[in-house]
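Lecture 7 notes: from sequence to structure.

We start with a single chain of 295 residues. Read the sequence below before looking at the structure.
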Amino acid sequence: MNLPVLAAVLAAVFMGTIGAISVYAGVSAETVTFYRLFIGAVLMGGFLLFTGQKDKLLTWPGIKVLLTGAFLAGFVVFYVMAMNHTSMANAVMLLYLAPVTASVIAHFFMGERLSAASACLIGVALFGFAMMMEFNFNLSGQTAEALGLFYALCAMLCYAAFILTNRLIHERVHVLTRSGYQMLAGALCMLPFMLQQSESIDGAQWGWLISAGIFPGFLAIMFAVIALRALPAATYGTLAYLEPITVVALAWVLFGQSLSILQMAGSALIIMSGVFQAVLSQRESRLSEASLCPE
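Now the structure, written as tokens:
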């Protein structure tokens, strides 16, 4: 497994831990998200200083990096707002249309042509995710339900924009620079929402918030940026479906929320599509290298 593919897998797994950490932290989603991004940004800054890479910290990252940070915060905010008005199943189903949306946009407007195999694997992953949700996409017909779906759509578009904008950032901006500034920009976007909560945080909760900053924050976003710099949107999008599998697995192990046979079959489909997409990506990479370096 090459480094970008491994980075995409690790990013999906670490991002999937945020749900469990939020439950144990016992604070609002806005507060968890702010500290997830802010602590992650601080850790990245400390890492760059400690390793003598101050130049990467003091580099102007560019508007695209800051804009991507806003998209990062935006999809979380809208996702939380969606769950306040509609079911989690409805919100998640719409949110995870983002990788497919990003792949299609990249195909038509960014020159990242989808092969027939990649398109099929995306379809398999999407169908597997629908199986995980047990094809449950209920609409009550209420105004609040429609508003919740609108917020979920906004979350999906922000997530797709996060994936695509990372592909447009110039290579001169180091991955550590861009991930650090993305987390900082996202945290600043979340700050007013967090302050509105006026929550008091005890010692145990601080421990979980720090964990949020390390795992789904610092590590997950750094690995995501590394992967997005090298992988086509279709490959990253397929591997991103490992995140909901992580969420379901943690819910099963930690909170006793068992899986049905249909959900387990859906998880298997997603894993298989991710493995085949990774293999396909490696093969295409080797063919590209061979064409550039003929004997």
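The chain has a mean pLDDT of 83. Keep this in mind for problem set 3.
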